[in-house]
Amino acid sequence: MKRAAPEKTFILLIGHGSRLPHNKEMVDMHAGLLRDRGYRVYTAFNEMTDPSIEETMHIMIRDGAEEIVALPLFIAPGRHTDQDIPRKLGIPRGYGSRASTKYGREVMVHYNEPFGDDMNIPKILLRKLKEIGCSENTGVLIIAHGSPLKHNSDLVNRTSERLRRSGVRNVFIGFNEYNEPRIEDSYAKMMEAGFDRIVVLPMFLASGAHIAEEIPEKLGIPGGSRSGTVKNGYRDITVFFTEPLGLNPNMNDILVKKIRGLVAS
Description:
Blueprint: E1 9-15, H1 22-36, E2 41-45, H2 53-62, E3 67-72, H3 79-89, E4 96-100, E5 107-111, H4 121-132, E6 138-144, H5 151-165, E7 171-175, H6 183-193, E8 197-202, H7 209-219, E9 227-232, E10 235-241, H8 251-264
Parallel strand pairs: 1-2, 1-3, 3-5, 6-7, 6-8, 8-10
Antiparallel strand pairs: 4-5, 9-10
Helix pairs in contact: 4-5
């Protein structure tokens, strides 16, 4: 298939979808940032949120798309990204560039994997740690949702190792559910270790009940807050709870890198 002119190459950001507004807000934020950089961007959701992938694909075809760069805004691969979304795009399972004829005429779809394993993620986390300020007596806790599949836990372990190789000391990991160690177990070990500051880095894309209520309760800080002081015996420990990874504007640079790589290939 002949390469499309730049004005016929559209960007599709795909979110998971949620009954709460936070996932859509995150997707819309990145869509706005990409539009500010000159890209023609559409959004869609796998479930629970409108517009659906099918609805947006019809609109993009109607608007004259000849090539579509489809970027799933997911942390890690899984059934949705490997199977459900390709089927809705009209391409075979997996990632790559394939033609889709599902929506009335042929269009080239460049479908990329989730961005959580990008090598720039540790750099973004490092930048956040520098903003907060870390000493030798600071503990770093990377937290994630957890999953029955191994992709999420593998990703968190790789990210923590990359941070250690970058010179960050005292890196721990914790999962909200499904995987070990649990957030509360790693947090208890950090309390026992004697750190005077703990920085919690959530590898979540957006806020929601876990980020706003459940996890702050496990950390002993007020719900909806980004920091707090926790007592451990006679010691006061300052806890910093950073924003979800997907809300960091620097994540948009990863999307731009993906777009440029896919369109140039």
